[in-house]
What we know:
Bound molecules: zinc ion
Structural class: alpha/beta
CATH architecture: 3-Layer(aba) Sandwich
Amino acid sequence: MKKLLLLFSIGVWGFTMYAQGDDIQVLLITGGHDFERNPFFDMLEGMEGLVFTEVKHPQANDYFKGDKAKPYDVILFYDMVQDINPEQKEGFKKLVESGIGLVFLHHALVSYQDWDYFQEIVGGRYHEGGEKASNYTHDVHFNAEVVDGSHPVLNGITDFELFDEIYGNVEISNKVSPLLKTDHPESMPYISWAQEPTPTTRSIYIQPGHGPQVYSLDPFQRLLKQALTWAAFK
Ligand SMILES: [Zn+2]
């Protein structure tokens, strides 16, 4: 079924689609880092069975408080910000404990540098500066190799090639289950992983996702869709 796009205001101009009965409700958080909106939303529009509602910073962190995130099955983080207050942090912890699905895409790894809990939930840490500084390189051809083909997030996905941005020297938690790896020498070795921070909470990180070349790739679209579905326990 063709989905229709509807613009409406959630404090700021946002984006959503008409929902069908049992569609997965995705709260998409953006802000703090540019991206090419049209190809990105074209990709999301093609994901049958998922409905995306966008909220932008600085309002987005208020969705961690109270019941504001209750209508959603999963949060897709495609933001990169540092500011968050104690009340919002507390709300985020409660959401994690409540079992909401969590998918962190690309530059979301760089958010909240000074908040250890967030890094634990993402399963990795990109250091902006300092002795352990991480790094990034744009426009790189690299490979993605399936680590655990039995994982539902990788259903129908085999090894594939990408042209996108890579991150190097990133700390990866030993609690995560790697999903995809690469042998590019300047990239971090794992470029997607899953973890279950609580018995009822699923979190996924996907490193590729900078621009249209990767948005249009079938294996990438599958990976993102299946990550959202798995994290939502659907
Ligand atoms: Zn990027």
